[in-house]
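Let us work through a complete example step by step.
Step 1: write down the sequence.
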Amino acid sequence: MIRSSGAAVGMVTALVAALFSAVLAAPVGAGTSGISHVVQLGDSYSAGYGVLSNYRSASSGTCLEPGFFNSTVVPGGRLATQLGVTLDFQACGGAEIDDVVDQFRTSRSSIPGDGSGSLVVFTAGGNDLRSVRGEMWPDILQRCILWDTSCEKRSNNHAANLDVIRARMVALVDEISVSAPGAQVRVLGYPELMQRTPGCWGVTGVDRNEADFLDSIARNLNDVLESAVGEVAVSRGGDIEFVDVEGAFDDHGACQTSWSGQRFVNDTVFVPWSLRVASNSFHPTATGYVAYSEALNSSL
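Step 2: predict the structure and record it as tokens.
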């Protein structure tokens, strides 16, 4: 029994070491040389929920404390580690755009002067999404996977508030640019989650048409976010960019089978002994977070 326990500990240690090596694998470009401080804001994608192993319920709304799996795996935290600079980690699962406004206001005191030398990076907007029936994005996913057949044919499942999301994102990025005009600002988009190949064998309960529908929601959301960020970049100037990650995740969605080694997005993960969907469902895997980091670093 003692030997088995030691072997298990050794395996866990090796796994953590391998993951930590992968964390630092994304190359750092010359454009990062002027960065001395990183602020990581955002929602669960920015909080590292994809590599959770404790199966938090998707409805918990619990914000992760800074630690290995969230502050180092996510793009801003990884970059700060690679550069050896300070990190202000504010990202929280369940955050909507207005919450990210509050995160930035909290972090502002850590940003020196006008923000020169600081990088502000985040994902936001996914939790603001509402369907025609008023459901949030995780609820739309759950409905398509568990309850509705051909969910794409039901108009109540379609996104209904993209214009509201755009206005909120404009307000957020504008506040950051006015408060810290010297900071680099990077708004990261979302991957297409499913990406059938040509079916969706990796996600039980989703057919090819539903996969296409769910991916179209992500694309439309990204278009709105990119438009909002671009508007502020033009009106305020400064180093403000939307970072499209769809290419970085191309052909690596949840529809890939787990044994293919090509999946950058988790399939549905259930809380053990229940039908509750866990918080790491349809979030980036460790490899997916490396893809996110490569996209961020390429934009700097």
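Step 3: interpret the result. The mean pLDDT is 84.
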